[in-house]
Amino acid sequence: MNDKLSQLYQQVLLDHNKTPRNYRVLDPADFESLGYNPLCGDKYKVFVNIDENDIVTDISFVGDGCAISKASASMMTTFVKGRHIDEIEKLFHQFHDMAQGKLDPEKDPNDLGRLKIFYGVRNLPARVKCATLCWHTLHAAVKGKEKVTTE
Amino acid sequence: MAESNVSLKEAASVEAAGTIDIDRCRDDFPVLRREVHGKPLAFLDNAASSQMPEQVIRAYTEYHSRNHANVHRGVHLLSQEATEAMEGARETLRELINARSSKEIIFTSGATDAINLVMQSWGRTNVGEGDEILISTMEHHSNIVPWRMLCDEKGAVLKVIPVSDDGILDMEAFASMITDRTRLVGIVHVSNTLGTINPVAGITRIAHDHGVPVLVDGAQAVSHMKVDVQQIGCDFFVTSGHKMYGPTGIGILYGKQEMLEKMPPWRGGGDMILSVSFDEVLYNDLPYKFEAGTPNISGAIGMGKAAEYIKAVGYDAIHNKEQELLRYATGQLQSIEGLRIIGTAPEKSSVVSFVIDGIHPHDIGTILDLEGVAVRTGHHCTQPLMERLGLVATTRASMAMYNRREEIDQLVAALRKTIEMFR
After folding, report:
1. B3 domain-assigned
2. Whether residue B9 has pLDDT greater than 50
């Protein structure tokens, strides 16, 4: 199989696309944010609960888009649960740099762990935004830009 | 045929009337020889932009390497040659769409620019509060947004002719939607998303019965079929060079002379004037009244050469070839389980849009790309149409005269591989 193809569409990515984890509305949620890519129509909502120590206690997402965006959202939720928001902020920047090819997860220091499989998108400029959409959405959510109002 | 630097023999890949010598035709298009991601390129994204033959590329570069000068100004030889080449292109394009006069052919930066010209000049003069602009659900954004802008500015109403699930325009609804407030009908000749060919002559007749002028968006028509603006009867017709084997950044507005004469200029500057003082400006005659500033000279020359290329191959041959490819592609794609073709009107150009259960078009597009197949994925700048059809995106294969069955086979094989991967 084509190298770039097999690097990008790894089994784990395809699996997360097929059965996304934490795919539900979190109600009530402390924060939520809508991520939308008008170019391709990918649309996701990310919900986050954060405790008094700024630890993410729960996170979920819903929405629709391509396999890369959906798998990235699914893997992000499993990866950041239980982490401090400062740590998540760091991961956001690392992930972003990796997707753009500015950070080589095999050589440069990073904490991306299993998220390294998204390094493959750097070869496909049109798809970088697919992988990073959920991270931007989470970033906006924890920045408190769109605090959920519960009635 | 207009004078040309390229001999007809070179340009023509015609074997006999109605057929194309495909090997010679492909030889004319240098890009078709390249590989992408280590695979032979199967270029099936012609509705987004078709490739340029060597003859067009040569005419384009010839201007820059031999005749580069401004037009309509200099008394020196280069300027005269540039002017002749550009005005020759205008005449070739006039002939291609059978306009009465080359005064009716305005060079623009493309079809979008041409529609904006009509909106700014004709629209802002003739549309007022409570008036109605009638367009269809299958319009490209370029024939929606300018009218939405005009309606917002004037307090006018944008009305939309419905389409069926198959992608066919509802002609009964259309006829009933024209009122005494309708000021313009804007209709796409060939849908870029569905391939549907609309009965633009019939639409024009009905609109004219009510005294309503018609703008036809022909961006997807001119590379596929003989367009005769007099036979259609429309008041405006727009198209783009790069969708008919010409360069980007160039297009034309055809307008009936009596319409264009009544319209005010929309951009001011050089070339569109007869005389200028600080108190008064006398505008130039058609077509220059609408061409302010130095035009895209090489683009115009290239577009003219593309029109010559099309004429040399012949619309009969192009039609036969493309319809054969359409039938083949439709049959092959239909044989794929879980694939649904979007747009099944009986009259179609060589466009096949489709969706596959459980696989997002962008993933399909990426995998096809890595297999050497270039297609378009997304909403194709027709978001309202996609919403009507209940879709976010489709994958679209669009064929040109130079495509081969083998490229359809390459597409189908890559799609089967994609489905296998996502199973």
Report:
1. no
2. no
Shortest distance, CA A26 to any CA of chain B (angstroms): 25
The catalytic site residues of B sit at: 381
Q: What is the CATH number of the domain that holds B327?
A: 3.90.1150.10
**Are residues B39 and B64 located together in one domain of the fold?**
no
Q: What is the mean pLDDT of residues A60-80?
A: 96
Whether residues B122 and B137 share a domain: the answer is yes
Q: Which domain holds residue B375?
A: 8-52+314-421
- In sign, the C-alpha dihedral spanning B185, B395, B225, B239 is positive
SS3 per residue for B75-113? CCHHHHHHHHHHHHHHHHHHHHHCCCCHHHEEEECCHHH
Q: Which residues of B touch A39 (CB under 8 A)?
A: 378
Burial of B367 (0-12, 13-18, 19+ CB in 10 A): buried
Q: Considering its fold, how many domains does chain B have in total?
A: 2
At B396, the amino acid letter reads R
Contact yes or no for A66 and B371 at CB 8 A:
no
∠ Cα B185 B186 B192 (to 5°): 150
Are B360 and A67 inside 8 Å of each other by CB?
yes
C-alpha to C-alpha distance for B101 and B91, rounded to whole angstroms? 8
Whether B422 contacts chain A with CB within 8 A: yes
Taking the C-alpha atoms of residue B398 and residue B353, their distance in angstroms, rounded to an integer, is: 8
Whether residue B303 is found in the same domain as residue B323: no
Please give the Cα distance from B385 to B365 (Å, whole number): 20
CA angle at B411 for the pair A131 and A37, rounded to the nearest 5°: 25
Alpha carbon distance A14, A19 (integer Å):
9
Q: What is the mean pLDDT of residues A62-75?
A: 95
Inter-chain CB proximity A9 and B363 less than 8 Å: yes
Tell if the CB–CB gap between B367 and A5 is shorter than 8 Å: yes
The complex's ipTM works out to 0.88
Q: Which residues of A touch B359 (CB under 8 A)?
A: 67
* B81 lies within 8 A of chain A by CB: no
As a whole-number percent, the residues of chain B with pLDDT over 70 amount to: 96
Q: Does the CB of A126 have a partner CB in chain B at under 8 Å?
A: yes
Interface-testing mutation among B362, B385, B410, with chain A (most A C-beta atoms within 10 A) = B362
Complete DSSP assignment for B338-350: TEEEE---SSB-S
Among B280, B311, B342, the domain-final residue is: B311
B132 assigned to some structural domain: yes
Q: pTM for the whole thing?
A: 0.93
Q: Across the interface, do A5 and B378 touch by the CB < 8 Å criterion?
A: no
- How many residues does this entry show for chain B? 423
Asked if B370 reaches chain A (Cβ–Cβ under 8 Å), the answer is yes
pLDDT band for B8, please (50, 70, 90 cuts). very low
